[in-house]
Amino acid sequence: NEGTASGTLVISKASLTATADDKTRTYGDANPALTISYSGFVNSETSSVIDAAPTITTAANATTSVGTVPITVSGGSDNNYTFSYVNGNLTINKATLTATADDKTRVYGAANPVLTITYSGFVNSENSSMIDVAPTVSTTADITSDAGTIPITTTDGSDNNYTINYTDGTLSITKALLTITADDKTRVYNTQNPGLTYSINGFVNSETQSVLDV
Fold first, then answer.
1. Which of 77, 98, 138, 146 is deepest in the core (most CB within 10 A)?
2. Model confidence, pTM
3. What average pLDDT does the chain have?
């Protein structure tokens, strides 16, 4: 007798790998759009066929310090695919901070004014009090430096979240003021004028009339 038999074809799910794409941003910026790359689709299918797409997240926010933070992918489901997940990394690079030495002015012979720095580039409402190692500001000028301009330099700062660029300033030394006073004189009528003389006040740095150019 001829007979028939039937069986069952079991079709198991194909394997699909969902990989969180690596991303890069600058400290203080918003996170970039997080994306997933897939491998394992069959039948020319794409991510548009997934019943419930995986979610992709990172714990990083604008205040997260420089370094790498995981980007995680999870939670997808599909009738025809079994998911496996590969995490990515969000790389946070340093922001750029500019430290500018403020221009200053003083008179020849006076002490240098307090030297200060102005910053530009802070993010997250931060300020100079939060710099790990604050830059130093200095000038080679002293009370004996001639009138003119001398650089004010900033150097040696460092911070985990900022790359610090430096802009020099200028110390302008103006001339000191000398007061020349003609000395009072007396003579008798119908005699020669006495020798006319003057006195000078205002010398600094223990200098005297001998330093005058003319």
1. 98
2. 0.82
3. 95
